[in-house]
Predict the structure.
Amino acid sequence: MANKIGNVVIGEIKEIKQNIDLGKINDQNIQGMPWGLFKQKLRFKCEYYGINFREVDENKTSITCAKCGYKSKKNRKHRGLFVCERCGFVANADVNGALNILKKVVPNAVRG
Ligand SMILES: [Zn+2]
């Protein structure tokens, strides 16, 4: 395979399922496509190309520092900004969360 992709890792949105009414989950869209349909299509594409499709629990990935592992709601300064209260790591909040989701499957994938 040209891009040598072995795994695709996405987060299960359990936090949202537990804390917010189901109507809002059903309304979540990725570029106009419902989340469930997006996942189904992504899984199908991965199987077609022989790529492992992994879904992991997103629990606390949005408040956990991808660099040092410190967990605190105070790390989320506002929707798009993550600043670690302990080590000072600064990142886009979605990037920080995605790194934490990746680390659940490949712990040594992120360094420094
Ligand atoms: Zn940190």
About this structure: The chain is about 35% helix and 20% strand. Residues 60-112 form one domain. The longest strand covers residues 7-12.
